[in-house]
Inverse folding.
């Protein structure tokens, strides 16, 4: 049932863009370190080329993905069809976090909506593209985006977000370096 693809072609790109949620997984090198799996939503993913994708990384209570990427670069993005024909797509690759102080940040950010809570853009150089049946994935109805994140951001304000990042996003739960500022 599974298939490995040489690139993200037009058909795969259209399918990826039609999904409302995707999952990002990373892990530290230490065997006792904590693996991380995060769901992502909003209008946050862009296909930059046949083997390159990027997504907006918004401020959150942890900084695991960024810390793991800084340590070893390993990442996988997984997409599941919750509506329509069943399918799972996995994009394995090497990722890097582009923070707002990086020279290439502005050019990349121009391809996304502006979210006050953007703390980085994760760019993934895809090394393996594979799909599988997805027969075990349930059918779920998409009802819309949640607004709690944006309400929280507005309530915090720019200075509150800066303080929050300093308190929560400088180190991972395993003590690895996170954001640089």
């Amino acid at each position: 049932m599974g298939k490995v693809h040489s690139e993200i072609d037009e058909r795969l790109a259209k399918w990826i863009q039609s999904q409302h949620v995707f999952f990002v997984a990373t892990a530290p090198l230490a065997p006792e370190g904590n693996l991380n799996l995060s769901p992502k939503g909003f209008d946050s993913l862009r296909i930059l080329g046949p083997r390159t994708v990027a997504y907006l990384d918004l401020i959150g209570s942890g900084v695991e993905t960024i810390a793991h990427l800084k340590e070893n670069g390993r990442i996988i993005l997984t997409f599941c069809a919750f509506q329509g024909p069943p399918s799972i797509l996995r994009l394995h690759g090497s990722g890097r976090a582009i923070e707002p102080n990086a020279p290439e940040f502005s050019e990349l950010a121009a391809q996304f909506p502006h979210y006050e809570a953007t703390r980085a853009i994760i760019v993934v150089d895809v090394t393996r593209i594979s799909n599988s049946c997805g027969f075990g994935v349930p059918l779920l109805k998409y009802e819309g985006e949640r607004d709690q994140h944006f309400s929280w951001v507005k309530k915090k304000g720019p200075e509150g977000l800066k303080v929050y990042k300093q308190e929560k996003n400088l180190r991972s739960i395993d003590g690895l370096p996170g954001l640089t500022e």
Remarks:
- The chain has a mean pLDDT of 96.
- The first helix runs from residue 10 to 17.
- The longest strand covers residues 118-132.
- Residues 3-168 form a domain with the Pnp Oxidase; Chain A fold (CATH 2.30.110.10).
